[in-house]
Write a structure and sequence with these properties.
By secondary structure, the chain is mainly alpha-helical. Helix content is 50%, strand content 4%.
C-alpha cells in the first residue's frame, strides 16, 4: 500500500471530522514527515525510521511534546487505515513517547499574580485611553459590513483582555464569540462547539464586572459604527474595527505594550514567559487560589483530563502555598 494513497484518503476523510485549521496542520505535518522519511510503501516503513526522524526534530530544537505530536499524527493516520481495512497492521503502534514533564518543556508559561492582574487591566484601560483617537479610512468593500464606512475612533481592547482572564477561553474561542452567545440575564457566555478545541459546547458564568464591561463595549461599538449591532456580530474586534482572525503579531504588539505599561516582565527570572495563552493559565491558577475544586476548574477550561488541568494550569506560587499552610 503506497503511503501517499493512505495519506490522501485519510486527509479527505479528516476534512469532514475536524476544523479547517486542524486539517491544515495535520496535512502539513504528515506531508513533511513522509518527505523526510523517504519511504513510499507501507511495507518498507520501520519504527526505527520514525524514531530517528523524531530525534532529529528534537535535536533541531523542538520540544518533546511537539516531536511526539509528529509521531502521533502518523500513527493516527495508520490506525485510521487499519480501522478502514486498508492495511493489516500499524508498524508504529508500539513506539514509546518521549517524556513530557515540566523539565522537558522548552516554552514554559506562567500565570499572573493577583497584583499583576490588577496592574495589567489598569494598563490596558490606560492604553485604550491614550490611543482612543486614531483615525484611518476603511476601504469600501461590497458586502462587508465592517469595511463600509470611515471610522474615527479606535475600538477598545481592555474588555477582551478582561474576557480572557474571566473565562479562560483560548484565542479562537474568545475571538469567535458573538453577541448572541452572551446572556446578560443569566450572566453567561457560551463558547460554541464549533469554536472550541474539544468541539464541545461550554457555558461560562460571568461576574458582574465582565457583564458591565461587555455592556459598555456594545454601546461603544454602536457609537463607532453609528449602527445598531446584530446578535450575529462579533463581540471582540481589532482596534481598526474588524473581526480578529488568527493570533497575529498585531495583537501581540498590543499585549506586549500593555505589559510594559503595567511593569510586568514578559519573561521572569526562571525563564517562564507571558503571552496571550498565559491568561488562560492565569484563569485556572486564580480559581485554584480561591479553593475551587479541580473538577470545576476542569469543566470551566474544557479539559478532557483533570491531570492536564492540575499539571499545567495551576501555577501556584509560594505565597499561595503559605496562605494554605497558615489556614490549616
Amino acid at each position: 500500500m503506497p503511503l501517499d494513497l493512505i495519506q490522501r484518503e485519510f486527509l479527505d476523510d479528516l476534512k469532514f471530522r475536524a476544523s479547517a485549521s486542524h486539517h491544515r496542520n495535520v496535512k502539513w505535518s504528515i506531508t513533511k514527515a513522509l518527505a523526510a522519511l523517504n519511504v513510499e510503501l507501507l511495507g518498507d516503513l520501520q519504527p526505527i525510521h520514525v524514531i530517528r526522524y523524531r530525534n532529529q526534530l528534537r535535536e533541531g530544537g523542538l520540544a518533546n511534546r511537539t516531536a511526539n505530536m509528529v509521531v502521533d499524527r502518523l500513527r493516527t493516520m495508520l490506525n485510521w487505515a487499519l480501522g478502514c481495512g486498508l492495511i493489516d497492521s500499524n508498524p508504529l503502534r508500539n513506539i514509546r513517547k518521549l517524556p513530557c514533564t515540566a523539565q522537558h518543556q522548552r516554552y514554559r508559561r506562567r500565570a499572573l499574580t493577583d497584583e499583576e492582574i490588577d496592574r495589567f487591566l489598569a494598563a490596558a484601560e490606560a492604553d485604550d485611553r491614550e490611543t482612543a483617537r486614531v483615525f484611518w479610512e476603511q476601504e469600501a468593500n461590497e458586502g462587508e459590513r465592517w469595511k463600509r464606512r470611515r471610522v474615527g475612533e479606535r475600538v477598545p481592547q481592555a474588555p477582551m483582555w478582561l474576557g480572557f482572564l474571566e473565562t479562560g477561553a483560548r484565542w479562537s474561542e474568545m475571538t469567535n464569540t458573538r453577541w448572541t452567545d452572551l446572556s446578560v440575564e443569566t450572566r453567561t457566555l457560551v463558547l460554541r462547539a464549533e469554536t472550541t478545541k474539544s468541539k464541545k459546547r461550554r457555558v461560562i458564568p460571568l461576574r458582574e464586572q465582565m457583564i458591565t464591561a461587555l455592556k459598555e463595549l456594545r454601546e461603544h461599538h454602536e457609537q463607532i459604527f453609528e449602527d445598531k449591532l446584530e446578535d450575529s456580530d462579533p463581540i471582540f474586534l481589532s482596534p481598526e474595527g474588524v473581526p480578529w482572525c488568527t493570533a497575529t503579531r498585531n495583537c501581540m504588539r498590543i499585549f506586549d505594550r500593555v505589559l510594559v505599561r503595567a511593569k510586568v516582565a514578559r519573561v521572569d527570572a526562571e525563564g517562564r514567559k507571558l503571552d496571550i495563552h498565559a491568561l488562560r493559565h492565569t484563569f485556572g491558577s486564580r480559581l485554584a487560589r480561591r479553593g475551587v475544586g479541580l473538577v470545576q476548574v476542569q469543566r470551566l477550561m474544557g479539559h478532557s483530563d483533570p491531570k492536564l488541568t492540575a499539571q499545567v494550569y495551576t501555577h501556584l506560587d509560594v505565597e499561595d502555598l503559605r496562605r494554605a499552610v497558615e489556614m490549616a
